[in-house]
Amino acid sequence: MRTPIIAGNWKLNKNRAEAQVLAQAIVAETQSVKDVEVVLCPVYTALETVATVIRNSNIKLGAQDMFWEASGAFTGEVSSDLLKDVGCQYVIIGHSERRQYFFETNETVNKKVKAALTAGLTPIVCVGETLPEREAGQVEAVVGNHVKNGLAGLSSEEIRKIVVAYEPVWAIGTGKTATPEQAQDVHQYIRKLLLELAGEEVGNSVRIQYGGSVKPDNVKELMAKPDIDGALVGGASLKPDSFVSLVKFNS
Ligand code: 13P
């Protein structure tokens, strides 16, 4: 019912030449994949390069962040329209690294999500708790805040258009994946919130990705869980072999 979505978040890696090589290898190896949506999210400076490589493929382009204003005196920022202009259909919003290092809050996430939707971009809205928060029994409180405040004021039809990514901070880049059961528990909670916010039909249609040390050897058991609809992948998206085997988790 929900098309799986596997997205590579390349973070601050790959110059244009490297991005071109990686994207070309992924295009070549995923041509036969029709039942999984694939998104590549390179750095801003490589967006156009990757857009050119994926032009005649099923692969889609995403950015890693954006600002909520359309234009003006905002040195260093990039707007939704500029991302569309370079070929993006997706944009990651509120990644934990942005929350941690760049002071992103639920309020800024909410403004960015609204601006992305207005421009016709699909926001991949990231939520997730830190290890101390998990150990203090605050997973639902933290994730609930991220979801409710990040999506505040959105209509059901707007919520229909988003993707949520559950990324427990303690699992990102640590090699320590959440167990499929741990992930499913939180995904199920997020699903419940989406059902409350947007009603049954929309709440059941929104895809929820898991992110945090997703690797070829754990993707299948994660994807087998009922509310895990995809993966947002860091490290394993930087090599064609590992990313392609994630995309082909089903075969
Ligand atoms: P890793 O796959 O490297 O743990 O990163 C996950 C992530 O942050 C994707 O956005």
Explain how this protein is built:
Helix content is 43%, strand content 15%. It has 251 residues and is α/β, with parallel strands linked by helices. It has a single domain (5-247), classed as Alpha-Beta Barrel (TIM Barrel), CATH 3.20.20. It has an eight-stranded parallel barrel with strand order 1-2-3-4-5-6-7-8, surrounded by five helices. α3 (80-85) links the parallel β3 (60-63) and β4 (90-93). The longest helix is centred in the C-terminal third of the chain and has 19 residues, at 180-198. The radius of gyration is 17 Å and the shape is globular. The two termini are 18 Å apart. The mean pLDDT is 97. Bound molecules: 1,3-dihydroxyacetonephosphate. 1,3-dihydroxyacetonephosphate (13P) binds next to β8. 1,3-dihydroxyacetonephosphate binds at residues 9, 95, 167, 172-173, 211-214, 232-236.
- Please tell me the CATH architecture by its name: Alpha-Beta Barrel
Number of discrete helical segments: 12
Give the topology string: H per helix, E per strand.
EHEHEHEHHEHHHEHHEHEH
Report, as a whole number of angstroms, the end-to-end distance: 18 Å
CATH topology tier name: TIM Barrel
Helix fraction by DSSP (H/I, runs of at least 4): 40-55%
User: Any idea what the shape is?
Assistant: globular
Question: Could you provide a short overview of the structure?
Answer:
The chain is built from 12 helices and 8 strands.
